[in-house]
Known about the structure:
By secondary structure, the protein is an alpha/beta fold. It has 13 helices and six strands. The protein folds into two domains: 1-130, 2-Layer Sandwich (Hect, E3 ligase catalytic domain), CATH 3.30.2160.10; 137-256, Hect, E3 ligase catalytic fold. Mean pLDDT is 89; it is low at 243-260.
Amino acid sequence: KMSIGLDFPSIIWKQILSEEVDVTDLEGIDKLCVQALDEVTKLDARKFSEMVAECFQTQLSNGVQVELKDGGAEIPVTSETRKEFVELVIKARLEESILQARAMQKGLAQIVPLRMLRLFSWYDLEILVCGNPNIEIEVLRRHTKYSGLSASHPVAKFLWKALNSFNQEARQMFLRFVWSRNRLPLDERDWGTTKFTLNSLNASDEALPIAHTCFFSLDLPNYSSYEILRDKMLYAIFNCQAIDVDFNPSSSSLNAWIDE
Length: 260
């Protein structure tokens, strides 16, 4: 079983399961909005009148301005009505994707009955569909085979040390670099016979690692130090994503993707 790379925020998964959403879900898609609304509620009356010049309207994720009540574009928010304003903004933002979520729910129900889906929490559903967003390097290591070098080779040890030092964002970028996905299979059964292949590459410290995403493999130059490997790997995973952009033969980033 292969997971699907759907990095949806909690609000989408909750709406698919018809679970209640709240301001913490809004924070997951627009933290600045929540912070601004929080500041609005904290201002005293004098500062509010000096600093806030809003009407009963808000901007949705697609950039469209919507009125929060009839004629809201012409109704100024006052210190006395700010609580209502904040509540209406939160309500509008939490409901802006409900139609799309219901369409997704309808499609998913064609495969799994909704009554069965509702046995899971939104987080459980995300994990089942997408896999665990937290990448455990030891799991990847257990499903690795070596070509031209062994697990005890210094450069292999450098790689695992570097990956263990990465935060989750960098680990996901590494997995995307070598496999075009950002999550590992959910459990041992889902791995099947899939193996990550680490190949030795006869190249200098100046070379970048070469990824073969279709084959889930990495050609790794025989770097002379851990520090060099870590720096080269970080550069490659964050700057050499040519598989996801329009083809540009003059792009230097392609050097990490194209086999000579």
